[in-house]
Design a protein that fits this description.
The chain is of the alpha/beta class and 363 residues long. It has a single domain, classed as Divalent-metal-dependent TIM barrel enzymes (TIM Barrel), CATH 3.20.20.150. An 8-stranded parallel β-barrel has the order 1-2-3-4-5-6-7-10, surrounded by 6 helices. Strands 8-9-11 form a 3-stranded antiparallel beta sheet, with no helix packed on it. It is globular. The relative contact order is 0.15.
Length: 363
């Protein structure tokens, strides 16, 4: 069960080599970072230095890219290979809190454009042995993500599942994950608390184990999937038809939304995971506003029940303070102590539930 640390857990700045030291010091197995931000440059010598350091430390590496865009992919796919990363995480949009209103009337076209750009990048990804793993970045439903993988149907396309971001589109982690199991390549371990608002709810950062996610159960589901697939007669969750109207652009035209599918895109190797603690600003999910839903297909209320049950069993009292030090305009020293404490509490929690080995590290 390889677990590492992601640079995005921290807003106070660590470079790639400091992250590697942090991972080793806490008994973790890998690192995830954006080469553009965590390395001084992308020269061959710098990439090789990072690759060598990670290999000598016994760490896996996941590279972070930005929004799906041709120039970015052409630049970062070779860079990812240069640092020894077999996975490049990317995102499809800048939508936050599930709020697609800035893309009014254009969400399905945007998804289709991302698909086309990713398809063009597949030969380069294959050449370098790098899987492009698209993250659900508070924007995409599980059906959007599954549609994308089915459309591209390639072993060089997969999914970075951000567990906390699932909550931003009014889904719950187990159902979301199960629908995407065949395509998971990487997982962001993130937890959130839920706080009510007049317009919907906020999801606020917390240490792993301090929010709504049942990590023992979820990790068991993910880590057991590869063995389960080998059982005769078992159907993949991705073969189960999803709720009507939720399978991506094709579905909007009255088609099924499902393309002819082979096993090409189904990953059966190790699924890496990194601790990526939540956003430093709470995400406001304005799901009680009628226009919030304009860019979503119609959803049967019964399909919302798993999320609603999660919400009502975990929602915090209305007056509780959900703000981070950044939201309170506190000092950088306070923010750094806060981030360090939450990271160390998260490592301790993962060791407590058996997700991280306990025979090494400082936490």
């Amino acid at each position: 069960m390889p677990v590492g640390v992601c640079a995005y857990s921290f807003n106070t700045g660590y470079d790639a080599f400091q992250l590697m030291d942090m991972a080793v010091g806490h008994g973790l197995d890998g690192v995830e970072f954006p080469p553009d931000d965590c390395l001084p440059d992308l020269s061959p010598s710098t990439l090789e230095r990072a690759r060598t350091r990670a290999a000598e430390s016994g760490l896996f590496v996941v590279a972070d890219g930005g929004q799906v865009e041709s120039k970015m992919l052409r630049r970062l796919i070779p860079a990812a290979a240069g640092i020894g990363a077999s996975t490049l995480r990317v995102v499809m949009s800048g939508v936050l809190g599930g709020d697609r209103r800035p893309l009014s009337g254009r969400w399905n076209a945007h998804l289709a454009a991302c698909r086309d750009i990713l398809r063009e990048a597949l030969p380069l990804a294959e050449k370098h042995g790098v899987v492009i793993a698209v993250e659900n970045h508070s924007d995409a439903t599980s059906h959007d993500m599954r549609w994308l993988c089915q459309e591209l149907d390639s072993p060089y396309i997969g999914i970075t599942l951000d567990v906390g971001n699932v909550l931003a589109v009014c889904e719950e982690p187990f159902g979301y994950t199960e629908r995407l199991l065949p395509y998971l390549r990487h997982v962001h371990l993130k937890d959130y608390t839920i706080h009510p608002s007049d317009e919907g709810y906020r999801i606020a950062r917390c240490p792993l184990g301090g929010g709504v996610v049942d990590y023992p159960g979820l990790l068991s589901l993910i880590d057991g999937y590869r063995d389960q697939r080998g059982q005769a007669g078992r159907r993949d969750p991705a073969d189960h038809p999803g709720p009507a109207g939720q399978l991506g652009p094709a579905d909007q035209s009255g088609q099924s939304g499902q393309s002819v599918q082979t096993d090409q895109s189904r990953w059966t190797g190790e699924i890496t995971k990194t601790i990526e603690l939540g956003a430093i600003y709470a995400r406001h999910v304005r799901m009680l506003m009628e226009d919030y839903w304009a860019e979503y297909p119609d959803r049967d209320i019964r399909d919302l029940l798993p999320f609603l049950r999660l919400y009502w069993s975990h929602v915090r009292p209305g007056g509780e303070d959900w703000r981070t030090p950044r939201e309170k305009d506190e000092s950088i020293e306070v923010l750094k102590a806060y981030e360090t404490r939450e990271f160390e509490e998260s490592v301790a929690y993962l060791k407590e539930i058996g997700a991280v080995r306990t025979n090494s590290g400082t936490s």
